């Protein structure tokens, strides 16, 4: 189904609004997570804060791409988003190995648990909106960035589960173990973006 010029303009505005909402959430999140991590000395919360930085970077890439047109701009944007996925996977891998090696035990804190729970719900909702908007626009960059937001939501769930299991059952290793799931997902999405770019190049 073709999208009219009026509808396309409305979808572009919606896409930008969703990106700005994601950026604002993650900027606030960095501050909240910094406070929570300082109180609990949680490596997982520090990692989640760095993931928020990656999400901010990906959001800025999409806003840049939505401000113009052209295949070359989309290719560069997709390359940057794939790089963000790989950076996240690399960081989480290193963090998980270190935490497991030193048997790091974080303190317990309500702020981290509440924020990650609310963030998970917000990121999944934003990701769904971006995905729908990107598909209607036929914009692969917005669709790809919606998957970055899904990873952000999944990571929030992983951190939340780890914090809760550590606090209730003393399973200090639950959080770094759950992070390995996010590593797999991030690498898979980076490869999918690369494959999509290759298909587009050969089309």
List keywords for this structure.
mainly alpha, Alpha-lytic protease prodomain-like, about 0% strand
Please give a structural write-up:
It is a single chain. By secondary structure, this protein is mostly helical. The chain has a single domain, classed as Alpha-lytic protease prodomain-like (Up-down Bundle). It is 88% helix and 0% strand. It has six helices and no strands. The relative contact order is 0.16. The model has no long low-confidence stretch (mean pLDDT 81).
Strand segment count: 0
| Assembly of the depicted chains | single chain
Tally of helical runs: 6
Q: Averaging pLDDT over every residue, what do you get? A: 81
Strand content: under 5%
CATH architecture: Up-down Bundle
Q: How many domains comprise the coordinates?
A: 1
Secondary-structure content class = mainly alpha
| CATH fold-level topology | Alpha-lytic protease prodomain-like
Q: Could you give the order of the helices and strands?
A: HHHHHH
Shape: elongated
CATH class: Mainly Alpha
The termini sit apart by 21 Å
Fraction of residues in H or I helices: over 70%
The biggest sheet amounts to:
none
Poorly predicted tracts of residues: none
Rg? 18 Å
Layout: helices, strands, pairs:
Blueprint: H1 5-40, H2 43-66, H3 71-102, H4 110-137, H5 140-169, H6 174-202
Helix pairs in contact: 1-2, 1-4, 2-3, 2-5, 3-5, 3-6, 4-5, 5-6
Give the gist of this structure.
The protein contains six helices and no strands. With 203 residues, it is mostly helical. Helix 2 (43-66) runs antiparallel to helix 3, helix 2 (43-66) runs antiparallel to helix 5 and helix 3 runs parallel beside helix 5.
């Amino acid at each position: 189904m073709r999208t009219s010029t009026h509808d396309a303009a409305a979808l572009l505005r919606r896409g930008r609004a969703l990106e700005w909402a994601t950026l604002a959430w993650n900027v606030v999140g960095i501050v909240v997570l910094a406070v929570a991590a300082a109180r609990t000395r949680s490596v997982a919360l520090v990692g989640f804060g760095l993931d928020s930085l990656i999400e901010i970077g990906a959001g800025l890439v999409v806003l840049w791409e939505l401000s113009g047109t052209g295949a070359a701009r989309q290719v560069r944007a997709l390359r940057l988003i794939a790089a963000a996925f790989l950076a996240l996977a690399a960081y989480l891998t290193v963090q998980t190995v270190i935490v497991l090696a030193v048997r790091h035990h974080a303190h317990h804190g309500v702020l981290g648990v509440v924020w990650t729970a609310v963030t998970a719900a917000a990121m999944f909702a934003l990701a769904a909106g971006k995905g729908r908007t990107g598909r209607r626009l036929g914009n692969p960059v917005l669709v790809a960035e919606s998957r970055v937001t899904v990873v952000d939501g999944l990571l929030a769930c992983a951190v939340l589960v780890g914090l809760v299991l550590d606090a209730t059952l003393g399973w200090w290793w639950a959080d770094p173990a759950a992070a390995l799931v996010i590593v797999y997902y991030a690498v898979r999405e980076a490869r999918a973006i690369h494959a999509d770019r290759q298909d587009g190049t050969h089309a």
